[in-house]
Amino acid sequence: MDQEERTGARRDGLEQTGGGTGVAGAGPLDGFMLTKAELVRPDHVYEELRRLQELTFSDMAALAWVADEGREHGPYVWTCVVGSRNDRYRRMSFRRGSSGLAGTALKLGRYVTADMERTPAFARECPVMLAEKLQTALALPVPKRETGEAVSGVLLLGSRSGLVYGQEVIEQAEAGAFRLIR
What we know:
seven-stranded antiparallel sheet
């Protein structure tokens, strides 16, 4: 067993929780918890997250999927993350409609932004923002592969320097969310 297998670290500096196939029933954090029809290559997801991180000048990009594919309203967990400074996100989960940034994006079915300076109370309800010391963040729903409408996950982009996410960045993130499910 090499270092990568023992720690889950990847040589390219990207992080992946779990391992294995991501096929349903393999465990809540194993791979990306997509249905068999939605299964995508993990490398594709990390490439797209890295691309979004660079395009939007974000410090962090993360993707959360529902932990148990059989329960549409079950907890969502952060499964793919680039730019993280620690691994605390691995222990975080949220539900559709929860008061945080990602839960609100799921509930509303559209993008939501948070800013520690302008809306500190709302921003503090997002554990990822606190753990990663993000000053601003953007969360948006990721559509299901078959329909492109129903939600299967959440994309989160965050900035430690307080970058304001304008309309151009939001459009790039929305396009990236669709590329994630191809």
